[in-house]
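new request in #modeling-help
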Amino acid sequence: MAKNKLHKYERVQHLPNVTFSVLGESGLPSTYPWYDKCYNGMEKILELGCGKGEYSLALATANPSKLCVGIDFKSHRICVGAEKAIAKGLENVLFFCVRIERIKEFFEEHSIHEIWLTFPDPHPKNRTIKSRLSASSFLDAYAHLLIPGGIVHLKTDSELFYNFTLESVQQWGGRVVSKSDNIHGTDCNRYGTLDVISTFENTALSKGLTIKYLAFTLN
Ligand SMILES: C[S@@+](CC[C@H](N)C(=O)[O-])C[C@H]1O[C@@H](n2cnc3c(N)ncnc32)[C@H](O)[C@@H]1O
């Protein structure tokens, strides 16, 4: 393994803004840092599959009165965002290293205001459809976590994932509140979709791919 990656695995263990889940050992959601007294009354935003946390950092910077939690199972990626947050003195962003399949264990029911799915893996093969972050089991979890009327935002360069999500939300009984199949081709910057352009998004744009956006509610 590359030395740089190894160093990140080591460093991330000691960062005060990163939490790790231990399999089979989740405590009550209220015992996790995002429910600490210092965050009382702050709206909570989750970024699922945050990678290096570019979105989480930008959302936290733009919304100082809200708490952002970036979630990913790859700790060397989380390390990058968490170290940047510390260097910038950003105190309203936390990172959590866990599989998204388990998030219901760590957050209280109806306590999350927004969920961002930023360029999730499209899982194009039929045999991994259930791993798509907008498959019905994930929508069940999001509905459990979101406050009434809370919004799930999706940005993706994958037409397959975009169309799958539209169908999955409709079948689940959710409501699409905004959609665009090319956010850079219109003047629309609804919900600030153009405010943050991550490295991943820039790479997709440089390949000539269009960026799609969906916002939906589940309750
Ligand atoms: C394509 S990257 C996008 C990263 C980032 N959101 C961005 O826009 O730059 C997808 C990320 O989702 C994470 N991921 C995929 N499936 C996951 C899962 N089941 N649980 C936690 N993280 C997951 C991967 O580790 C990866 O960092």
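bot summary: The beta strands are 18-20, 43-48, 66-72, 93-97, 112-118, 146-156, 175-180, 212-217.
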